[in-house]
Amino acid sequence: MRLTTKGRYAVTAVLDLALHQENGPVSLAAISERQCISLSYLEQLFAKLRRNNIVSSTRGPGGGYKLSSGIDEISISDIILAVDESCQVVDCNDGDSDCGEYQCLTHDLWQELSNEIRTFLDGITLSEIMSQESVASVKVRQDNAVNL
């Protein structure tokens, strides 16, 4: 799967947003501090997330971002696809292939794996991740570290 830093950071940032939005819009600066992701990188990601209706923004003092839908309605694949990432293991038509215009020998194998990954990520929502004990303990640790 071609899950790059962009996709991983987008999932991490949206999960952080989901965990902290109960008190109102969450600033990118707060997410940046907790998750150690560059603010300018988050701005790029959230522009795509906003365009794809994963998040909405509020301007002005006390502004920031919130989820556009409920945590039960947003899947991990929704987030990854919103930032232009692919769930493909390989793409025989991406120009990097030695196959030219022909399908390679293992094309069907990799396509099937890509479909399985996509199905897996489609089936995981933010609420499922948020309910994990390990996620809750990391949230507490990060919040405590920021408040020191």
Instruction: Identify the CATH class of the domain at 5-86 and 125-133.
Output: Mainly Alpha
Q: Main sheet: which strands, in order across?
A: 1-2
The CATH architecture term of the domain at 5-86 and 125-133 is Orthogonal Bundle
- How many extended strands? 2
Distance between the termini: 38 Å
- What series of H and E elements makes up the topology? HHHEEHHHH
CATH topology of the domain at 5-86 and 125-133: Arc Repressor Mutant, subunit A
Low-confidence stretches: none
Percent of residues in helices comes to 40-55%
The number of helical segments is 7
Averaged pLDDT: 89
CATH superfamily of the domain at 5-86 and 125-133: Winged helix-like DNA-binding domain superfamily/Winged helix DNA-binding domain
What is the overall silhouette? elongated
